[in-house]
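<given_protein>
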Amino acid sequence: MSSNNITMSDAAVLVSRPSRIGFWTLFRRSRLGVAGLAILVFFLILAVGEAHISPYGARATGVGPSFAAPSLAHVMGTDNLGRDVFSRFLSGCRISLLVGVFAALASTAIGLLVGMVAGYFGSGIDSALMRLTEIFQTIPRFFLAMIAVALFGASIWNIIFAIAILSWPVTARLVRAEYLSLRHREFADAARVVGVSTFGILVVELLPNAIGPVIVNGSLQVAQAILLEAGLSYLGLGDPGHASWGVMLYEAQPSLRTAWWMSVFPGFGIFLVVLSLNLVGDAINDALSPRAHDR
């Protein structure tokens, strides 16, 4: 009897241990993840505080001589119209992050809906939705986004819509896999027995247990959306009314050799934000992994 009690006590400790380890405790084990988070927070502060930090308006022309090199007056120099590159950099930070976040949220919402329905109901519904997902996955995203933006106009919201409608399949397949493994677990069967509705099972019972991979993928989706918007803008398909980093790179093309600062600073901004999002995504993945509680 004593031996059995000790075994049960030890098992209880092992089961309860993960609940006592906070997410932040696990996350900060990754130094690269913490560094990525610090970089990301820095750029978020720049984006939110643009109006208070920017020395000039992003569209203000003639605030300095054309093609002025970086100096104390213009820390990132000026462009061909005498606009302050630092002011436009701050605006580009806000626009690029806005595009990335909203496109990722929209694509994640679509992917969640498709993945939940396919994974929970299975059978013919699952087959039909997965064939649709495969069709979207076989289409080259970048070129279809180019066509969509060219047809519907190069506004920020059209770009967000084009990116979102082409980025949901990965999320859908992740969610479907999670729901296929969760739908017949004991807690899901118990919920059905007590009369919980299908919607309640899908959203309240299963979704919290499947959300980990979605969060990780969402951080990567933000990075991919920023890169896709920058690529479209670099080819002249960005919104000219908003100074995103991609639009800045497009405007810098004729002056790559004579005014390096026009392309280097927005390019470096894209690099740092995308890198930080990938580092944060990897750290979140490690923190949410069950193996993290055993280390």
User: Anything to note?
Assistant: The two ends are 31 Å apart (CA to CA). Residues 1-20 have pLDDT under 50 and may be disordered. The chain has one domain: 22-53+83-294. The longest helix spans residues 85-121.
